[in-house]
Amino acid sequence: PERFRARPPDWESLTALCRALEFSTLLQEISLGERSLPQPSQHREIAVISEMGEAIDAIKRSRKVAIALRTTADPPIKATLSAIALSWERGKACYLPVLSPMPPELAAIFESESVLKCGHDLKGALLLLEKCGLACRGPLFDTMIASYLLNPEQQDHALERVALAHLSIAPEEVTTGETPFDLCGQAEIILQLSERFPDLLSSHSLLSLFYDMEMPLVPVLARIEQNGIKIDVSRLTSMSKEIDARLSTLTERIYHLAGSPFNINSPKQLAEILFEQLHLPPIRKTKTGYSTDEDVLTQLAAMHELPSEILNARQLTKLKSTYIDALPKLVFPKTGRIHTQMNQTITATGRLSSKEPNLQNIPIRGDLGPKIRSAFIAEEGVFLSADYNQIELRILAHMSEDPHLMEAFQQGEDIHAQTAAQIFGLRGEDVTSEMRRVAKMVNFGVLYGISPFGLSVNLGVSQMEAKRYIDRYFAHYQGVRQFIDQTLEVATRQGYVTTLFQRRREIPELSSKNRNTRGAGERLAINTPIQGSAADIIKLAMIAIDKRMREEAVSAKMILQVHDELIFEVPEMEITLLKEMATQIMEGVVALKIPLKVDVGIGKNWGEIH
After folding, report:
1. What b/e readout covers 363-390, taking b as 16+ CB neighbours within 10 angstroms?
2. Strand, helix or coil at 169?
């Protein structure tokens, strides 16, 4: 019986196991006494400049400071900073209410090139500190980005979750920072994370990616957010009225085709019209009845006009609510511009994302896409777009070393026309625009591990014909086939893939016994090294262009990154300079086995530059 008596667990082993298995709930339930943060004993509130000397001297000696901020709102561009907490050693931190002007001793610390500034989401901190006259220069260490690089599949890298995962500190201990003691505690947690992460990053070969790419990118993104982009509100208002009129006409047309009015937004009523009154064949059944989603309506549109018009109405409604009516509400009154937030820690491939609003999702196709983009206007001068030409296919050529693919890019040939000639068995001059379109979908489909079924759906052809296209592609580009096979073999063996710059993504799906799950993992394994390398290359280009722009003191501003494209707002007199600068840097930022190519567009609004 004595052997079965309950005893305290091995806390160190237990917490390590829970962290490894990401058992967040269990971590929270482990005894606070066994895992709590050492209580800071020397937190002080500094209210006057004369009391800062001791803290400043200690920070200079340690050459490192962790920063936690209290703000009044979100996002940072609209927020006001009310307090700063600094920690330079475990158990030691200070709290400083924001003063105007801020103490010069503190400014010297933030501007020092020898003091490492640590924070959790430093991009937001840079914007807030700038408002208080504190220019943050020198080396940076962002614990949120370090967490992201170690686990890019994780969606949430908030401080409380990261502290739980890496320090076994319960979320309730990572408080909101409403009191001086709480904010100082946050600064000390950030300090401890900054001490723990370098070894973890090193063990995953991520130090260079962190210090040479992700950290230098932080202030670049902060400047992009601060610059913002101007929109023509009156143009969007006019478009909104135009779409209202189109929707009204379209609604009457839908009622006529249906035979009676009904609630177009009701799946149940729509299903009754389609399947009971019009007797169209149900495609898929759900728990609540027959599906009327986009895929179903697209298939039914080939049989009857009503599903097609429903799709048109849905698209118009979505564009109106998501962009045309929403964008004017996001203009910041103080600047008259929209300030999107650029995120480094969202996508697992390393691509940057945008939110509030998502400017990377502004449509480009259809009759409304260019019109919406035309509402983004250059307030001074013009927009200049520098867009990598087919960078993912060029990276595929570099990584696969396929001789036909490499030769096409080295000779400056039309890769889609060349592929069309191969899969249709024609000479290049006999390839039609439709054949080129098919080849383009095959070229890019290969990057995403597309199946014959997926390609057949996209092209509207039979699976047999789609398979024939794919087989002919691989018969010609045998190096690509070998590259894919080798990538899958290595990824399955080691459980992860890497980009050209050692960005790492775990793919546990590859070991799944479920065929569909394993297939999804294989597609990720093929695409991630290519898409992730493209994302890394444009990040390096952004850093280099931003550096050159500041060195040459140009007036032009980098205002947006959209996947493989950089957009600048440029005064007329600097157009030639910026065009040459962006092209030279983007094409030369990394040496591949085939050349990188950049296409440049110029216009008074975003719609004109494509």
Report:
1. beeeebbbbbbbbbbbeebbbbbbbbeb
2. coil
pLDDT of residue 28: 67
Is the model more confident about 561 or about 302? 561
What pLDDT does residue 178 have? 74
Closest residue by Cα to residue 483 from 491, 493, 494, 472:
491
Task: Identify the sign of the CA torsion 119, 121, 123, 126.
Answer: negative
Give the whole-angstrom CA distance, residue 10 versus residue 120: 31
Mean pLDDT of 337-360: 93
8 has a pLDDT exceeding 80: no
pLDDT computed for residue 51 by the predictor: 62
Angstrom distance (rounded) from CA 160 to CA 590: 37
**Residues with Cβ within 8 Å of residue 530, at least 6 apart in sequence:** 392, 395, 396, 399, 447
Whether 29 has a pLDDT exceeding 80, the answer reads: no
Contact 75, 125 (CB under 8 A): no
Is the Cβ–Cβ distance between 198 and 171 less than 8 Å? Answer: no
CA 284 from chain center: how many Å?
33
Among the listed residues 484, 495, 494, 580, the one whose alpha carbon sits nearest the alpha carbon of residue 530: 484
The per-residue b/e assignment along 18-49, b for 16 or more CB within 10 angstroms, e otherwise, is bbeeeebeebbebeeeebebeebeebbebeee
pTM recorded for the entire structure:
0.89
Listed residue (100, 105, 70, 102) closest to 85, CA to CA:
70
CA distance 325 to 339: 17
